[in-house]
């Protein structure tokens, strides 16, 4: 009978070893159970896009504010889209953003009503500056002259990575109030 080792997730945040070797180390040669641990970690915490796949755990384990993190290059070969479950666990950290599934591709989505067409372009410019600084870019939509919708996803993997949540959190940190239409009085 293989005894599943119940390792408190927080204790996994300290070691700096790749996820697979960590599970192998933790569970010895019990191939099936070590694969099980890797599945648990990947499903529950979403293996990060960073080179050392435990980096992503820090976000989930320490609750480090996403807006203080930096996006990583999207061309690393081990980057993969996070699971829907991992995305659902991160979405509360980016107020105002929704998780949408467009043809099987999960994306972050947020809309604003701006005061004018040109204020919409000013909003795009503020977001563009953040995107350029992070080398991670949103899809920008301005329709019906004053309806702005921003979509964020990682094109290189065809889904969501931690980069997308970092960018959304940094956009949330922008002062956009002067560009937005006041909400109609109730
Ligand atoms: C190397 C660099 O990370 C890539 O060219 C970036 C540029 N900006 C990007 N932005 C988004 N949203 N997805 C990408 O895959 C992406 N790739």
Automatic annotation (TrEMBL):
It comes from the Eukaryota. GO terms for cellular component: mitochondrion. The keyword Lyase applies. Keywords: Lyase. Its EC number is 4.2.1.96. It is an enzyme of class 4 (lyase). The keyword Lyase applies. This is 4a-hydroxytetrahydrobiopterin dehydratase.
């Amino acid at each position: 009978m293989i005894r599943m080792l119940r390792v408190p997730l927080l204790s996994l945040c300290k070691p700096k070893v790749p996820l697979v070797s960590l599970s192998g180390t933790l569970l010895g040669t019990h191939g099936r159970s070590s694969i099980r641990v890797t599945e648990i970690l990947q499903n529950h915490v979403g293996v990060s896009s960073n080179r050392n796949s435990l980096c992503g755990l820090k976000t989930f384990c320490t609750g480090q504010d996403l807006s203080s993190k930096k996006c990583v290059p999207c061309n690393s070969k081990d980057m993969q889209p996070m699971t829907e479950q991992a995305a659902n666990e991160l979405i509360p950290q980016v107020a105002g953003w929704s998780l949408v599934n467009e043809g099987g591709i999960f994306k972050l989505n947020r809309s604003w009503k701006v005061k004018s067409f040109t204020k919409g372009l000013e909003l795009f410019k503020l977001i563009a500056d953040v995107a350029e600084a992070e080398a991670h870019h949103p899809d920008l939509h301005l329709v019906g002259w004053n309806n702005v919708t921003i979509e964020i996803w990682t094109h290189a993997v065809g889904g969501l990575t931690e980069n997308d949540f970092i960018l959304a959190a940094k956009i949330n940190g922008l002062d956009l109030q002067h560009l937005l239409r006041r909400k109609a009085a109730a």
